[in-house]
Design brief:
There is one protein chain. The protein has 475 residues and is mainly alpha-helical. It has a domain of 73 residues. The chain is built from 19 helices and seven strands. Helix 2 packs antiparallel against helix 3, helix 7 packs antiparallel against helix 8 and helix 13 packs antiparallel against helix 14. The longest helix has 56 residues. The two termini are 88 Å apart. Keywords: Membrane, Transmembrane, Transmembrane helix.
Length: 475
């Protein structure tokens, strides 16, 4: 009987009870798991055993059948006669068949051996090549230039498939800072249809970094030809054309991208509006008012909430004597995006420039969308021009409530000076202006540069359609 006690190493042994299962690390039964694995290995063994015994049974049955039917076999060949029992003859026939089968098998091995060896060797090489390729991309993702370079060389040697290894070689060269090797690898990728688009994108980026605009344009155009439905070639081409002041060419690229649905309709429309505004400005500067009006109208139709489009179109309409249409454009834009530029053009678009008339017009602007600091400030400006000091002060106080920036205090100082002359009140407003938040300005979202006017291209960083107006309100 086994009893609980000390084992040979001083450990405590336990009595094993029949039917008890020891829990494994994952909560299962180790005994059950071993049994399942044993059963899995035992099934093929049992099948082989059955086939073996079946063969033995067939041989025994054949031997018994021959033993019950005795006889002799005579073989006569040339002058030789050989006689033997039937059983011996059957054994010799089986032996001859086995020898023939073995010779045939050996011949197949000798004939196919070199090819099979080559295939096996190639399979091992490809497996090693793909392993090196995967390791290289992991290293490249981690920024490890040394391992990425070594893996790329190993993959090139083992795979000998440039379409697979060149991208890794180019990326490894970029990580090393070797621009020449990187460009060489990308140029080699241009000859492979599978890698040409990726190479075009990389070479375009490199060309833009070194300021080679013609090369960048060429890569963008060719990439768009390769994949008309890809979004990045259309965006890149539009930005490059816009950067060179080719507004219509940039717009054509966006139109093509929109037609093939490479860009969402709203995104393409927003970008096109920016380009058409600049084209309208260019037409005005070159004495083509009809073309300017057409481009400005197209920009406003694409993006009615864009302030530069509305102000430009309203000015052109007012200049053409279409004051009512200009006001409608401004009203539509103001309801969506109130802005000081819109408020300024609101007065310019009036056919009657009498100061008192303009005060009435700005009262209408205040009523159009109440609670807008820009409208109250524009009305205060009109009241100052009309020398209505009380009205001006009232609306400047409203501006202080809504958006207390520098402009409100400076104009309050002007009103106090006009009413009472220089004094402590004027100085108090100027002191408040110095500590108040700065007035908002157009700002590039790409580089952070502030601009006094909106432009489609930031003259500091070259970003296209990146200049926006910040929202300002009382903190």
């Amino acid at each position: 009987m086994a009893e609980t006690g000390r084992g040979a190493y001083g450990g405590r042994s336990r009595r094993r009870h029949p039917g008890r299962h020891v829990a494994g690390p994952h909560g299962g039964s180790r005994q059950g798991g071993c049994r399942e694995r044993g059963q899995g290995r035992g099934e093929p063994l049992m099948r082989k055993s059955l086939i073996f015994f079946l063969k033995i049974g067939i041989l025994v049955a054949a031997a018994v059948w021959l033993a019950q039917r005795p006889g002799r076999v005579t073989i006569e060949w040339l002058e030789h006669v050989v006689e033997m029992p039937v059983g011996i003859g059957a054994i010799l026939v089986l032996l001859a068949a086995w020898i023939a089968a073995s010779i045939a098998r050996l011949w197949r091995i000798l004939r196919n051996g070199p090819g099979a060896f080559g295939r096996s060797r190639n399979a091992r090489r490809r497996e090693g090549g793909f392993r090196a390729l995967a390791q290289g991309w992991v290293a490249a993702s981690a920024g490890d230039a040394d391992i990425a370079t070594k893996s790329a060389k190993a993959a090139e040697k083992l795979l000998r498939e440039p379409s697979l290894t060149l991208p890794l070689s180019a990326r490894a060269a970029e990580l090393r800072g070797d621009a020449v090797a990187s460009a060489s690898a990308y140029k080699a990728m241009l000859s492979k249809p599978a890698t040409e688009l990726a190479a075009r994108r990389a070479l375009l980026t490199q060309a833009m970094e070194r300021g080679d605009r013609p090369a960048a344009l060429d890569h963008a155009r060719r990439a768009l030809e390769l994949r008309p439905k890809a979004d990045w070639p259309a965006k890149a081409l539009a930005e490059l054309e816009a950067g060179g002041g080719n507004w219509l060419e940039a717009d054509a690229a966006l139109v093509k991208a929109q037609k093939v649905k490479a860009l969402p309709k709203d995104d393409a429309g927003h970008r096109r509006a920016a380009l058409l505004i600049e084209e309208a400005r260019k037409a005005m500067a070159t004495g083509r008012p009809d073309q300017a009006l057409q481009s400005a109208q197209a920009a406003f139709d694409l993006d009615p909430a864009r302030v530069p489009a509305a102000t430009l179109l309203a000015r052109l309409l007012a200049k053409a004597g279409k004051h009512a249409k200009a006001v409608k454009v401004l009203e539509q834009a103001w309801r969506q995006s109130p802005h000081p530029d819109l408020a300024k053009v609101w007065g310019e678009a009036s056919a009657d420039q009498n100061p008192l008339t303009l005060v009435k017009r700005y009262e209408a602007l205040v009523a159009l969308k109440p609670g807008q600091a820009d409208a109250h400030f524009a009305l205060a400006e009109a009241a100052i021009n009309a020398k209505l000091w009380g009205v001006a002060r009232s609306h400047l106080d409203k501006v202080r409530e809504l958006a207390p920036t520098t402009r409100a205090y400076r104009r309050l100082a002007d009103v106090a000076r006009a009413e009472k002359g220089e004094g402590p009140e004027v100085q108090a407003f100027l002191n408040q202006a110095m500590s108040a938040p700065a007035d908002p300005r157009w700002r590039c979202t790409s580089c952070g540069t502030s601009h006094s006017d909106w432009h489609a291209v930031c003259d500091e960083c070259g970003a296209v359609d990146a200049i926006t107006w910040p929202k300002v309100g009382k903190a």
